[in-house]
Every structure is written in C-alpha cells, then in structure tokens.
Amino acid sequence: MADGQISLDQFQEERLKDPRIRDFMEKVTLEADPRFVEEYPGTLAAHAEIQTKDGTRLAEKCIYPKGHPQNPLTEEEVKGKFRRLSNLTLDRSQTEQIVEKVWGMERLKSACDLVGLLIK
Fold first, then answer.
1. Which of 7, 36, 45, 52 would disulfide-bridge 56, Cβ 3.0–4.6 Å?
2. Which residue did the predictor score with more confidence, 2 or 87?
3. Is 4 left (phi over 0), alpha (psi -120 to 50) or beta?
4. For the chain, give me the number of helices (H) and strands (E)?
5. Under a CB-based contact definition with an 8 Å cutoff, are residues 63 and 43 in contact?
6. Which residues, other chains included, contact 68 with Cβ-Cβ below 8 Å and sequence gap of 6+?
C-alpha cells in the first residue's frame, strides 16, 4: 500500500527496515478464512478490510486475482511484468529482444534464436 504496487523491490531487506513500513506492518493482522482455504487451489480468494482513522471500514473480496486463468493478464501486463522482473538480471536491450522473440515465436526458425538471448 505504501508504494501502490507489489514487486520484488518491496521485499528487499532495506525496504522492510523502513520505519514507515515497520509501522504499517504493526497495524496489519492476517487471518485465514476457512471458506477460502476449502476452495483452494480452485481459487486464490482473499478478503481485505481496512479501517481508516475516522473509523470508516472499507472492504473488498477477490476470488480470482490478476494473473489467475480466470482473470488473465493482458499482453501489455505480461510484458510489463517480465520487464520489471528481468531488469534485475538482464540489460534493457536483452529484455526487449526477448519480449520481441517471445511475442513473435511463431515466426522463429529455431528455438536457438530465443535460447541464445536467455544466456547472460
């Protein structure tokens, strides 16, 4: 919630030591919902409830999170996710070449054209 997104960056040790994050973590409680546990692995259901400082309660339930086969990512979301994750190990040029090859896979003459790009 602090960053408006979830990525590997949020799980870095230095990020988890941030006083704002530590303070937020103290305010969060997690509880397993037996109904959701029973439905797993068919769904990845979750329910979140937030109480604001003025006492307002906000609640949301999600049965199929983004990326689940019942709620798939769009092509651009898949590409964006790959770019965010690959930037940890690959340079931008290599990443873009991989994206181009994967999305044009049906035109590849050989899998070697793609595999060669996957080697750092």
1. 52
2. 87
3. left
4. 6, 2
5. yes
6. 43, 44
Element (H, E) at 24: helix 19-26
Say how many Å lie between the first and final Cα of the chain, rounded: 34
Chain centroid offset of residue 51 CA: 25
Confidence at residue 9, expressed as pLDDT on a 0 to 100 scale: 81
CA distance 119 to 115: 7
Q: Per the confidence metrics, is the pTM higher than 0.70?
A: yes
Block residue for tokens 């960053």 = 3
Q: Cα-flanking dihedrals φ and ψ of residue 42, to 5°?
A: -60, -30
Cα(34)–Cα(44) distance, integer angstroms = 13
Residue entry with tokens 């530590």:
22
